[in-house]
Please model this.
Amino acid sequence: MTSPASTLALTWVTPVAGAVLGASIIAPLVALWFLKLRRRKRVVSSTLLWTRSLADLRANTPFQRIRFSWLLLLQILAVVAIALALAQPEAEGLGSSGGRHVLMIDRSASMNAVERLDERGRELSEPVTRLELAKKAAKARVRELLGGGWFSSRASDVMIVAFGSRAEIQAPFTDSIPALEAAIDGISPTDEGTRLVEAIELARAFTANDRPDEIESALREAPPAIELYSDGRIADLDRIAPREGEPVIYHRVGQTTRNVAVSTISADRPPDQPDRIQVFAGLVNPQFEPARVTLQLAVDGTVRALTPDPIEIPAAEDRGGVFTPGRAQVVFRPIEQRDNAAIEVAIVEDDDLRDDDAAIAVVPPARRLAVLLVGDGGFLLRTLLEGLPAERFASVSVAEYDAMVEDGTYAGYDVVVLDGAIPKRLPTGRYLSFGATPPVEGLSAFGSHSSVFPRVVRDEHPVFRSASLDELFVSKMTAVQADRRFQVLAESAEGPMVVALDRSDLHLVHVTFDPLDSNWPFQRSFVNFVANAVDHLGRAGDSVVGRTLAPGEAIALKLPPGSSAVELALPTGRTERLTPDAGGNISWGPVPLAGLYRISFATAGRTERDERLVAVNIADAAEARLEPLETLQLGTTSVQGIAVASSSRGALWPWVLGLGLLIVLGEWWYYQRQVRV
Amino acid sequence: MSTAKPLRKLDDLLDSRLMAKLDAVDVVSRKIFSGKMQGERRSKRRGQSVEFADFRPYVHGDDLRFVDWNIFGRLDRLFLKMFLEEEDLSLIIALDTSASMRVGNPDAFDYARRVAMALAYIGLVNQHRVSLVGFSEGRIERASNLRGRRKAAEVAQWLLAREPEGGSGFEPAMRLVGTSRQGRGVMVVLSDFLFPEGFEKGLAMVAGRGFDLFALQVLAPQVVDPSREGGITGDLLLVDSETGVETEVTVTPELLKIYKERLDRLCGALRNYCVRRDIVHMVVESSTPVDTLMLEYLRRRGLLR
Model:
């Protein structure tokens, strides 16, 4: 593996030709110079003493010591310049050893940072993003690798891979410059995080399989050189180790560090004030100096609040190689908003990465849930559910529920709680069930266990908010087997205790034991669990999506039956047409950029178009750190970054050739001047 | 090359001021030579002058006019009185007219001609027999047996007609001079002695053959030190004025140092050679004033008095 030691300023397209010319001409030139030295003729009385003196001089030294002469110097300079011109120097290049090259271009969020200065600190004519710089440099590199030159016949194959949190091959191995340039041009910016492992594995896999009919030769061939165009802020760098003989070149892009980000946003309706929205925002300062920012709060695009005083964010710290960004939390005064809304918190001040200066949360409308309890006289749950702030609560038997399913009246309830009840079927809806295993595909009961307590609990799941299962003991539990579509939220040594299913048409949280067979009803966590579960299920697949997506994830929604003319409006202003499947499901993605995505559709019998909102926020706070990494540490190998030039790389050889000709002219002038003396 | 104005007339060679000074100077020979004509110089030959030299016994056939009758009266034996004969002195001035003499500023050849003129004038004024020999390419041109002040113009004419050209051919030239001499005497050789074939064989042709020999090595200042103004500097292709041989020279301090060492060695070798053969050697730069050379240096070295 090679590690370029320092920034190289020049590329020699045909270095061998220049070296051969230089070596073959300069030495003979020096020898010839003595032969063709233009001496002035001078008639003297006798050369007797001179010839004898010269003989004496030569007798002492077999070779005359070379003397300084402007003519000789100019001639050598001219030959050197012409030899250099023949080597076709080009600025800001790296050269090539031939073979295959994989150009990996980082298109993560940090690559959208705007650079205003070039690598020498001079102001650019117009600001340009890091991604554009990387693309320009990559295209120049492609021409460098494949362009050849005089006396050059090398043929490199080049592959283009774009990566963010996902990797994508933009162009397989080819030596077609137009195809590669088109592939590079086709790389669009994203707000994704930076993961390189997938990109490297993809390139390696592609390398192994690109010539299946020439396996032998492919195996003998050296691994392709990996050329990385990035700012070096790669999350999974520690998982990458280059293979034997696999060169890695790191083209370091960008130099700005000026950035402050809105890292988190939370917008909720307080339980006691359902008509209001409480907004929290987290700020990150990755710079090593404190920052002061002003925040604005906008609701559906209308600014509703502005922080009265600038918010101080402390400077980042780097203690023993552990980087800790400065953080600040902001709580806005609750705002009046009954309807659903897209809440945006944005930094007013300008910095070099605008994408992370705003975060959006979509808040559902102020609405209370309708809950239906299905069971035969479950006192415990009935009492509990009656105490919840539900809009409507009803309790029916299993037979009544089956009848409601038949006539469709069940759809008036947001959440159905099954208290040991097994209805004939579970239609589209949201269910919380206890004890008896509901009739859902992929979930089957096969016996029972006794004396069970939980071992693994996914505490981070919303249903376990303030609901610890540490004290739970279950005397009797149904043994169930759940397939991969189910998510196990709590598990004992004997099997799942709480499972969840999130299908587009069915949302289910199932507790595999009757609470009365445990000590759970005597614990506060039970009440919280039931309330959390009802709330979680009630919001799932709601008219607006409360959950925030990260760039790189996909939008998946279930639209009302009969929805048509579905359109997705992107934050960039572009609109895409989507076609829902038979069940009304739509999916689109992965979403490239952060921002608000609006899905609008027409429904039968309504003139107004309905709308769904999806907020996409940059999830990776590490992307906010713009300071490019000088050196990549890949396993035990350090790869020094090579600065990517913001200016276009130009061929220097015409200038060098011109200089050579000028020197020849100067030499001729000097000679003429000398012989006229 | 010389930038001085060319010599055109006698005054250019010898001005009247120097001429007047030279009137009181004579050539001195360290040896006594027999002359051809009766002159103003004491000869080894016993002759008819009033200066008594010796006696010798009379032998048959002697001129009875020289018998010392007083001694015959006292001793009754015939002795012949012998008198020193006063003869003229032969002054031979050999001038190197090879191309190599046309060098420097002041020009070495012009300087040599001025010196030759001055010496010849001294010889003419003192009623010596003056011969001028110009040598180049192994050939000689001569103006022989000039005597008397009136011949000064002829000497000047001859000197002004000389133009340096070709190689020196020192040895054959000196052989010619040595074998065709018209009488022993003082010989002054005016040359740079920078002969590719060496000076030894040439001097050997005239040394030890009855000449009182003076070797005046005339060198231009730029030959003595090429780094002087108008000298040799830089990257040059030197062309030998005599042979046309081209030599590439890049003048460096190191080379200049070696050059001067070489010149010193050459002059030293000539001096040693001359000392061994009783030849007076003298190096003179063409920048030295002629009157200083004549009235000081050559007097000091015994050529003039």
User: Anything to note?
Assistant: The longest strand of chain A covers residues 276-285.
